[in-house]
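lol forgot to send this yesterday, sorry. struct tokens for the thing we talked abt
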């Protein structure tokens, strides 16, 4: 399976957000409490979907039950401009009742459809085990594509090209999201 640079960058930002939420200052695991708090603020958080989608997508953590692996893996090959519609993914998963209620709220926002599509991709990736040895750069993909033709079903994650492209965009989005939160009265993240 191949993952586009777009989803790879978002996956990294999503994982960082999850890591930030997981523990309090005393080292206690408070992830579920913090996610519950964020879920209660979904009407407010939808304003951040375009700026920092990874900061909003976490509210759906563990809200998906994936049923069509091939459909979800196909989703991960797309970049931002080529994302399929939310409705086209309907057969690939089911939502927990609480997640379905949140999705209804998100769909009322102008970019809700696109956001839920990328959230489904992020949640699917979060459910996959990702061994360290499978992250490859674009230069190595030719060799990996040849080995995949031999029937191997391995996960291929494309790394940044080193030219400030996708990773730079992700950092810019993350910085903009952090600035927006400060403007809303939240403390600056370190």
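and heres what i got for the seq, position by position
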């Amino acid at each position: 399976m191949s993952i586009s640079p777009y989803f790879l960058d978002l996956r990294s930002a999503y994982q960082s957000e999850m890591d930030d939420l997981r523990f309090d200052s005393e080292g206690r695991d408070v992830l579920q409490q913090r996610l519950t708090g964020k879920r209660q603020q979904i009407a407010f958080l939808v304003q951040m979907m375009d700026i920092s989608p990874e900061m909003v997508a976490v509210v759906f953590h563990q809200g998906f039950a994936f049923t069509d692996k091939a459909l979800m893996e196909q989703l991960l090959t797309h970049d931002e401009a080529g994302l399929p519609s939310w409705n086209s993914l309907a057969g690939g998963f089911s939502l927990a009742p609480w997640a379905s209620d949140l999705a209804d709220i998100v769909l009322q926002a102008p970019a809700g459809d696109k956001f839920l599509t990328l959230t489904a991709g992020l949640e699917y990736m979060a459910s996959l085990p990702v061994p360290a040895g499978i992250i490859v750069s674009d230069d190595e993909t030719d060799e990996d594509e040849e080995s995949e033709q031999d029937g191997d079903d391995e996960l291929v994650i494309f790394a940044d090209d080193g030219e400030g492209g996708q990773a730079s965009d992700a950092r810019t989005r993350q910085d903009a999201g952090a600035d927006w939160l400060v403007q809303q009265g939240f403390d600056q993240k370190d």
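The longest strand covers residues 64-66. anyway ping me if u want another try
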